[in-house]
Design a protein that fits this description.
mainly alpha; about 60 residues
């Protein structure tokens, strides 16, 4: 970096080229993340309950 002033000018130019997501895009993305996280949580809850049930059956079998 030979010329810091030129570097700062280029950074400023690049900053003006940024396209930020709209409010609708941000809300949609946030709702999708929340929804998918909820689905994953329910899936793992059900899987955990099923495995616990099967493990209890296996452990209560007496030989």
């Amino acid at each position: 970096m030979k010329n810091p002033l030129r570097f700062l000018q280029e950074v400023k130019q690049e900053a003006f080229r940024i396209t930020w997501p709209t409010k609708k895009d941000t809300l949609t993305g946030a709702l999708m993340v929340f929804g998918l996280a909820s689905i994953a949580a329910i899936f793992f809850l059900l899987l955990d309950q099923l495995l616990r049930f099967l493990l209890n059956i296996i452990l209560t079998i007496s030989f």
